[in-house]
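the two lines:
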Amino acid sequence: MKTRKLSVLIGAAVLCLTLPRVVLAHAGDPTGGFLNGFTHPMFGPDHVLAMVAVGLWGAQLGAPAIWLLPVAFPMVMACGGFLGLIGVPLPGIEFGIALSALILGGLVFRQVRPPLPVALTIVGVFAIFHGHAHGTELPAGDSGVLYSIGFVIGTGLLHAAGILLGLIDRWTWGAKVIQWAGLLIAAGGLFFLYRAVA
Amino acid sequence: MNRSRMISGLCSGLVLLYPAVAQAHLVNTQFGPFYDGLCHPFVTPTDLMMVLALSLLAGAAGPAAGRTALLSLTASWLVGMLLGQMEWSRPFTVPVSVAAGATLLVAVLVAARLRCSPAIIGVFSSVIGLGWGLTNGGEFRALTDGPLVLAGNVACVFMVTAWVTSLAVKCSHGWQQIVVRVAASWLVAINLLVLGWELRQRLAG
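prediction for all of em together
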């Protein structure tokens, strides 16, 4: 059992290390494409707040939401990204993104536990806004394939961070910490909402 | 196999696989044409994602489907490459949009936890292997060391398929199954974005 785990870990490490330091592909600067995609969700505080909130909320809701939300979010977000890429306009993008942090943070703070379809709908609607913003902001000349890979991995890691933080929900003090984290996220959302409206 | 032997073997593989500089079509590992072919899928994301998605689908469908995928994908990939190498064959390339669409379809099946029969997996693997093999074979046609590159490329497809399929077969319960579905959802998201990117280029141009 231990040997198997070790071999899986080493195998994964080998796969990671096979990623080249320099990649020269067909168009643009693909290395920049991956890095741009990977860092894009990380360097947008409004995005980060919402992604982490999704993970925290999933952890609060427990199974099956803890894994269903992170499975659904990237797919729905990619639908939004697809719309953004082909130029379908979506009004109030910045407003929707800020509102997502406010609402999701508030849900975490209030420990709201709606039925699963409702939770999925809430997360899905906000995912469209986030995806659309990312889709329209794709830098010209970047490799679309590598940008998309980096972007989805970056977003997924933010969810994973939220879920890992949310695992402390099992302890009483941990549940309190998550609630306060939710309040902070909601406050951040309020700030971005003010900026979007002002 | 004891642990130290396994670790030393894997470390040797790591050193051999690690490219200093990778170039598309064809990657130059400095280790010769076999390793150039071996590394090619790792710097061709559309190839790698297709193999990963198909392996996850086959593994999630059980050991029988996994074995079918391993054999049919590798064999059809090899046949496709051989056909692509022939002088009389027309150059054939799977367009990025088709590659993304096919990967998207396969990954959706995994994410939605839809099990396919080994026969369907076999058909999928054969068609995909043939198409992707033809593309790669055509790209390697001009190379003097074509057969070695081809052997390395097929070996890579075989190893990745065997490894990922067996992992997916083992990951059939609890949180491990969730990992497989999350990986599939990431593949769906990536390929949907790639489709959008391709469509945007066509609309712009």
